[in-house]
Design a protein that fits this description.
Elements lengths: L31 E3 L1 E3 L14 E3 L5 E3 L9 E2 L26 H6 L3 E4 L3 E4 L1 H8 L3 E9 L2 H7 L3 E13 L3 E4 L1 H4 L4 E5 L7 E10 L4 E6 L8 E2 L10 E6 L9 E15 L38 E8 L11 E3 L4 E10 L6 E5 H14 L5 E2 L2 E5 L2 H7 L7 E6 L4 H5 L6 E5 L2 E2 L3 H11 L5 E8 L2 E8 L1 E2 L6
Parallel strand pairs: 2-5, 14-19
Antiparallel strand pairs: 1-19, 2-9, 3-4, 6-7, 8-9, 8-11, 9-10, 10-13, 11-12, 12-13, 15-16, 15-18, 16-17, 17-20, 18-19, 19-20, 21-28, 22-23, 23-24, 24-25, 24-26, 26-27
Length: 469
Amino acid sequence: MKSRHRTSDTLALAAVVALLLSGCGASTSVSATPTSQAASTPAASAPSTASPVAAAPTGVTTAASPVAAAPTSATTTVSPVAVAPTSAVASASPAATVPSPVAAAASPAAATTGAGASVPNIVDVADRVKPASVMVQNLTTVSPNVARRIGAGEVPAGVGTGFIYDANGYIVTNNHVVEGADALRVVLPPPDNRQLDAKLVGTDPQTDLAVIQVEATNLPAVVLGNSSDLRVGQWVVAVGDALGLPGGPTVTAGVVSALDRDVQEPGSDESPSGPSGPGAGGPGRPGAGNGRGQSQAATAGPTLYGLIQTDAAINPGNSGGPLVDLQGQVVGINTLGAESANTIGFAISIDTAKPIIEQLRQTGHVTRGYLGIAVTSVNSAIQMASNLQRPDGVLVGDVQPGGPAATAGVQANDVIVKVGDVPVKDQGDLQNALTLNYKPGQSVPLTIIRNGTQQTVQVTLVDRPAQTQ
């Protein structure tokens, strides 16, 4: 990520928490904002506009998905704001049985009311998940003169959320929450309220994931579930430190609106007072939680694949928080909130995140194979325009001279349909194959279609260059 400049403006935010219990239709073009929140201390951040070019999983740029998105960081020195709930979960009738946390862990948390109708028991879910949902403060070092005036040398430049998934203090959050931090602090929710220094274990900008760690005892932890079991219409609960408000995490509930969404993140650069203001849900990333910005002409961020779309409100400050099912198990990581549409938010699926989290915990980084090509997913329009025989695979655009693909004989307009024994239907499949299945140094058969004829070339993968998208 490019460096961003700081600003000393103090920003005040007001927020209305929206809770819609019914799904809504997707717009054909939606911009979204990241949900970590830039602080109202000397540093403030602002949204940036995503460019229409997405980052290719192979280390090169690709075509953008129809939805331009931005992670959810936002701005904190929130003036006292009264937030009125917009909807409430129907309470159970006196005869209704409300599951205990133990019972709810074994069966869906639901209470029965009226003529056999069922409503989710969000209370039990919140009670189980909130203790392990923590505020993550991205700290910046201020100048000695400022430090003397405010009585501190490090101040929060941004606020996001994380969740403890291992009692040894390992915490998952978004890369854009911790990006550029001089130091990190974790604040446990009430009644614990401990403030703990955190160390950065590892980050992966390509998937917008990060792992940090605190050293403490008696830490609660959440259970990682399985996002592959999710169904559209299923109830989910989002937990996070929306707007960095004091008093603990905010809980919102909704349903899974859609699955397997591909959404492009904004570039990490944007001026500190973008068109919609910091944290106001304007186009682009509100400072990635660290009060640094970049021009609207900046290169777009990576495309995130296989996201969960939900109408559970994901607000500035929620970035990195857990999206859980009614058993309180984490099925997603809250990351993006749409600014141009109501109740459209996106979470990284936990099945996508698990292998990345493990690599970050073990090595501090993610190793990916690199082909040296620009690609775009084949769809029906590309199929017709290019006279292709099938509506899937990835179409090769540019081929880097001297790169692994060029050396193997890959050409522009080839369609890649398989890497090794892994079928490739879209860019997400290609990224996963080069991240999870094959590593730099391996020689891998690449199945391509050229001029209607299928053929195989042998390509030797190399390390993905650090500055490629």
